[in-house]
Every structure is written in C-alpha cells, then in structure tokens.
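Researcher: Re-running this chain for the archive, since the previous output was lost when a drive failed. Same request as before.
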Amino acid sequence: MKRVALALSLLLAFSAHASAAPRELTTDVCVYAATPSGILAAIAAKQAGRSVVIVEPSRWVGGMLGAGLKPMQDCPNYAATGGMTHELLKSLGQPADGTHLTTAQLSPQQIRDDFLALLEKHDVPVIFEHRISRCDKTDNVLQTAHFDLAPFDALGVPPAEADQRDNLRVTAKMFIDAGYEGDLLAAAGCDYRVGREAAAEFKEEAAGVRPVVQKTPIDPYRIAGDATSGLLPLVEADHGKPIGAADGYTQAYNYRYYTTSDPKHRLPITPPEGYSAADYELVGRYVAYLTKAESDPEKLRKRLIGIWPGWMNSREWNYQRDSLISMAPLGISQQYAAGDYADKTRVWKAHQDYLRGLHQFMQTDERVPQSYRDEVAQLGLDDRYHPETAGWPHQLYIRVARRLQGRYVITAHDVYNQTQVDDPIGLAQYGIDTYPSRRIVVKEGDDVLVANEGNMFVGGNRGPTNVPYPIPYGAITPQEDQCANLLVPVCFSASHLGYASARMEPVFMIAGQSSGIAAAQAIAERRPVQKIDMEKYTAALTAAGQKLRWDPAVDKNGAPGGSEKLDFARLLKECDQDDDSLVCAGEWSVGKPGFDWLFTFIDADNSGQIDEKEYVKFQDYKAKNPKWRDTLRSGN
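Model: Regenerated structure tokens:
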C-alpha cells in the first residue's frame, strides 16, 4: 500500500494532463528521463541549490534497473564506483532491515519504489508520460523544450502518435539528456553517431563488421534448396561489406523479463495478432538441427531453453548469445536507434510480438520435443514484477542508440587504458560487450549456412586489462557551437566499441551525478558547460565522493565484501539454493551471472554439479594461470 500511495502521489502531483493550453514551466535544470542517471543528475542539481524537474516519457522511474537489470550485474569492480552510486548499488531493492537479499532475489518493483522514495526525499518533481518533440534555441543556447503527451499502452509499449502535441513547455537554464535514445540531444541540434565505425576511423582493431559466429548448416530459403523462393523471416542477405567496414547496424536489444509456472502468479503469454507459424520456420529448422546434433536430452533441453525463454541471468531472462536464435529479433535495432517515434514503437512492439510468437511456436511445433513443448506451455509472465503491464517490463533494453559527437570520443583505446584523460568525471570498467547485430546467409563453397554477426565480449566483465578507465567530461558535453547548456550522461560521446564497454548502468549513474554538479556550476558561473572552471569542478566531484582516478599501485579491485576469500564455503553461500552442498548449472547461472561459460570447465567430471574438490582445483588453476580468462574463453 505504501508503494502504491507513493507512486500515485508523485504521479498526481507532477503529471501534466491534457488541457486546452500547454503547461508552461520554468526551472533552473530540466532533466529528460527518470533513468537512474537522470534521477542522480536531478538530485545532484537539487543538492547544489538549483530548482529542477524531470520529464519522463513513461509512467515509471528507474529505467532498466526498474525493468529487470540488477544494480550490481554490470559492476565488476565496486571499488571503482563513487558518489551516490557507490551506496545505491548495494542498497537498491534491499529491505530496510532483515536479511540481505542476493542479486537474484532483488525485485525490479522494489527498485522502482526505492527510486520513488529517493525522489520524494529530495523533493524532485517528475512529469510523466511526456516525450520531447522539439526545442527552441537562441544561437547555441537551448531555451525551451517542448513535450508531447504520449502515454505508454497497457503492455508498456510507447505509442507511435502522441495524444496531444505540445502539451508541455519547459524553459530552463540547463538541460540534461539522461534518456537511452538521445532524443533530446538530437532535438537540440547536436551531432551524433549511430551504428558501427570502420576499424580505420579510430584505429580500433575490432571495430566495424565482424567475422560471423554460430555458423549452422540449416537451409535459409522459403522452399528448401530453392534460392529463388526468397529468404525465410528472421534471416537476411549479407550486405557484402568486408570485415572492419563501417555500417549502420547496432547490437541486439531485448527484454529482461520474468516467467513462472506457478499458477498463483502466472500471467498468460498470448500469440500476437496475425501470428503465423511460417514466420518462425527458421526456428523450426534450427530446432530440427539441434535435435539431430545433440543426443544428450539434458544438453538438448539447455539448447532449447536458449531459444526461448533465453539465458537466465539473475532470475530474469536475457539474450543467449551462444545460440543462433534466441529470445529477441536481430537486424532491427538500427531502425530504432535514430528513428522517429513511429519507428521506435514498431521496433519495440516487434520485440514483444516476437517473444509472444516464439512462445507459441515452441509449445506447438512438432519438431520441438514433446517434453519441452509441455514445459514451455506451463510458463507465463510473472505478475510479481510488472503488474501494471500484464507482466511485461516497461523498458526495452536499449543497449545503444544515438551517441553524442562530443568534445571527446571514448574509444577502445580508453578501454585498454591507452589514453590520458585530464577531466575525469568517474570511472568505468567492463569488457567490450556487443550482442549480435545481424543473422545472415553465409556461403562456403557449395554449402549454405546461417550465422550471426557482431557478437563479441572482449575481456569478459572485468575488461581486457582488469583496470578501470576514466570517463572524460568532454564526452558528456557537446561541441560548444552546437549547444552550450546541455549535458549527456547516458548517450555520451563514444565509438561503437567504446560505448560497448562504458554503456553500463553504474557508469550512467556516476555520469548522471557528475552532470548535475556541472549543470549547477555552469549556472552559478554563467558559463557554457564547456567552459566551467575545471579545477573547481574537480573539487566539487571529489567532495561528492566521486572516484576520479585509479592507481593500480594503491587501489584494489573488489565487490562488496570483495576481500572475502574465494573458497568453496563462499561459493555455496552465493549459489547453493537447495542446501545440498553442491552447485548445479542453474544455481551457478543465478549466483554467477555472466559466467555460464565457466561452469563446464570447473565441472571436470561432467556430473552437472560442482563439488568442493573441483572448485579447489579450479582456484589452484587460476593461481598458476594469471590469464586464465583469456585462455578459457579462447578455448585453448
């Protein structure tokens, strides 16, 4: 009841409803999007004594952390975080007292509640259900942002058309675009990037088009063997560009969603309107291939799970990158990235309809083993996490859309700690992590194959050097001649590869707080954001607790409790859910998100369980092989 009352109070107090005349607001700082980054930006500006308002396109707060992603999932080095982020990563979704929850036990609904409580505590108003439409500028200064009233539908999908145009106008001294799409920065006239740069542009070896992976001998044609019949849905022809070439593609999006077989909490997943099994024929042929290739029933079941529901991360489903086909469509993300609102709605809805149709196909097609058809039929969406949208998350996982072309471009060279940054606002650390961009036809001699392209994870979650790197202030600020009073802490300036590492929620949160501090200082100094006193700014960031530098000689990597010994007792504490003093693959997946690939190596006897002897042997192996991650991931 407290949660509902709090949400309603914010909604009723700060939502602008359709009216004959536009609602006019004047504030010091206007933040676009109540993502974790936007929330921290608004609080930081408010703490600096500035009036602030957040305008949020949906009815919810918390962005991806309020939609299924967990705060610590993309934070491999807690010691590299600072400011408000450092505390929130451990506290979001946790009970005020009592037993500390594991990452897998956290609820996105509780995380949303915690963000609402944080906004209420700092008296930050949020105007819901409004999206940016256009901006008024005088020379290079953004004066007023215009917003349309555009409520999301009952299943949490944004609309193609607004209910009312120009329903809200916000005049502000400073603006912060904290959305995942960069819609405000585009409306403000700032240059941006979409897609993949060529390897030559920034001398990034792994940039641009990549070698194909998951090559699979299945027929891609509507009439098997007849190329003139056209390609099946879910696969496309190769555009023919060479490895390393630039193209407009970007990595896959997907939902981070929850399912259950418990009738008390199960919500039905119904087929989409116009469902046709023919649209999933490629899936059927892939299932037939797997069934023939995999004789072990349990291993086959695991491969089928990878198709639908996907890969279980921390009790929520994610994309299974090792599968040719998984729980999200490929080849359409780029249509969303810089598309108009009609494009965005179409792509968002396509992800939802694809999941609904795939669920129907996997429980009805005769090529799927009957035992797995029955298993799929028992699954529905879980009503405990997104009850307001029939179990569907309200936020699609937009891994990358627009990227500002700012004063500094974060590239792979930053990720590899090969650059010198003089204006850090916080630290980042993660591997270069891209999900596949395309599923294409590949011809090798007389053989016709289907393969994915664009999938890579360089360096694992700790990154290729296992050392954090700084995010520069220049990366969150546009060129001064384009906009002098805008900061961009989410769609910041980066290459495709640089963003693939830095695009994590903890980094967005850190950058959000730093952008709020910068906005307040720019107002006080009456200067463009590009010309604030950097010595004073750095001092303000330090006073706010931001971690700006990493000294490997002094700083040590770690997570909360990271000094705890990596022994079998700790593994059981993290993973053993049934108290049998063993860790099965499912428990490992939940307790060690991102390390599914490692389980089979530790499970030396292929029993499907890790015991103490095996885990001790693995720790000995790690101690003797400092580059064990690279060795095991490469398969050598």
